[in-house]
Design brief:
It is a single chain. This protein is of the alpha+beta class. It folds into two domains: 4-140, PurM-like, N-terminal domain (60s Ribosomal Protein L30, Chain: A); 154-307, Phosphoribosyl-aminoimidazole Synthetase, Chain A, domain 2, CATH 3.90.650. Helix content is 33%, strand content 25%. It contains ten helices and 13 strands. It has a seven-stranded mixed β-sheet. The protein has a four-stranded mixed β-sheet with strand order 3-6-4-5. A two-stranded antiparallel ribbon has the order 1-2. The longest helix is centred in the N-terminal third of the chain and has 19 residues, at 62-80. It is globular, with a radius of gyration of 20 Å. The structure holds adenosine-5'-diphosphate and magnesium ion. Residues 8, 12, 28-31, 89, 91, 119, 121-124 line the site of adenosine-5'-diphosphate. It holds the Pfam family AIRS. Residues 152-300 form the PurM-like C-terminal domain. Substrate binds at residues 55, 262, 314.
Length: 322
């Protein structure tokens, strides 16, 4: 059985994503890593913890988990308009199973390559399986996208179809037998693609942004609160994928798009005059509503009548799941 230091050397320090890179002055092996950020940029930092049995099934394949854990973290950089630089990995493992570790690092590697992010350190401990990733990104001074700038009159937009990951959950959990057309949903759940290009394109254009992790309505609530505005979501404009509609049916697909978690698609507010320019850049933009004076998140039908959503989203320690 590998000791802690052999394990770190063999699986993590040796990984391609842990080798020398621009902006990383010192990587794995010392007491700290050293990062270099140009004087006209700021460092964006975010931490996420994933716990077996809470955020993913305890028997999840290492490869899929490695991909997903990193994607979920990097998505926060996308939401701030930051360019990925580096990440650390604090890993708690019940045992050092070599096959699982090799699969896990392969998944991490593939997502690290996809996102252009480098492993610079971490911690390795024994205990129930959990992962904490901290990501570091670079953003030009003053251009980070926060949740606080939405203004009445802006459009409310998202960067892709909603509800796909939530639609995959019954298949992930084995509650429903696998079917051909669920594959696109499963790919979205296990390997979400952080919207890095969109986030960076939104710098200086969007007035507020975040990535949807807890469900559209719940996350829009964060923008509404931070910006001191009301967000109106027009139900008929929700982008739903063909795969989700086929697997879940139209009504459930809508519910999942509104309240299902794990999408990691960006939601943002945009002055209407910026829309054409953003689309001309080839960025995916779906207008789903608008910003008004007031507070809260309000769902409307095609005629502008208020709709009461069945469920708003996911909160740990809240009254719904967990
Ligand atoms: P310290 O005792 O000084 O905190 P550790 O012995 O925990 O250092 O780790 C030794 C080196 O290996 C450090 O540079 C640390 O960042 C790195 N490291 C430990 N675990 C991991 C991991 N899971 N992934 C990447 N780097 C790791
Ligand atoms: Mg340590």
């Amino acid at each position: 059985m590998l000791g802690e230091f052999e394990l770190i050397r063999h699986y993590f320090a040796a990984a391609a994503c842990a080798q020398a890179a621009d902006g990383v002055v010192l990587g794995i092996g010392d007491d700290c890593a050293l990062l270099e950020v140009p004087v006209d940029e700021q460092l964006a930092v975010s931490t996420d913890t994933l716990v077996a049995g809470v955020h993913f099934p305890a028997d999840a394949a290492g490869l899929l988990l490695g991909q997903r854990a990193l994607a979920v973290s990097v998505s926060d950089l996308a939401a701030m308009g930051a360019a990925p630089l580096a990440f650390t990995l604090a890993l708690t493992l019940p045992d050092a199973a070599p096959d699982w570790l090799a699969d896990f690092t392969a998944g991490l590697e593939s997502m690290a390559r996809h996102c252009g992010v480098h492993l610079i350190g971490g911690d390795t401990t024994r205990g129930p399986l959990s992962l904490t990733l901290t990501v570091f990104g670079r953003v030009p001074k003053g251009l980070a996208l926060t949740r606080a700038g939405a203004r009445a009159g802006d459009l409310l937009c998202v960067g892709g179809s909603l509800g796909d990951a939530a639609g995959a959950l019954p298949f992930v959990l084995g509650e429903q037998p696998l079917r051909e057309d669920a594959n696109a949903l499963l790919a979205h759940y296990w390997s979400p693609s952080p919207q890095l290009a969109l986030g960076q394109a939104l710098r200086g254009l969007a007035t507020a942004a975040l990535d949807i992790s807890d469900g559209l309505l719940a996350d829009c609530g964060h923008i509404a609160r931070a910006s001191g505005v009301a967000l109106i979501v027009e139900q008929q404009r929700l982008p739903l994928s063909a795969a989700l509609r086929a697997c879940a049916g139209d009504e459930t697909a809508r519910q999942l798009a509104l309240a299902g978690g794990d999408d990691y698609v960006l939601a943002f507010t945009l002055p209407a005059e910026k829309l054409d320019g953003l689309r001309a850049m080839g960025q995916p933009v779906h207008v789903i509503g608008r910003v008004e004076a007031g507070q809260g998140v309000h769902l409307q039908d095609a005629e502008g009548r208020a709709i009461q959503p069945l469920q708003r989203g996911y909160q740990h320690f809240g009254s719904q799941r967990d």
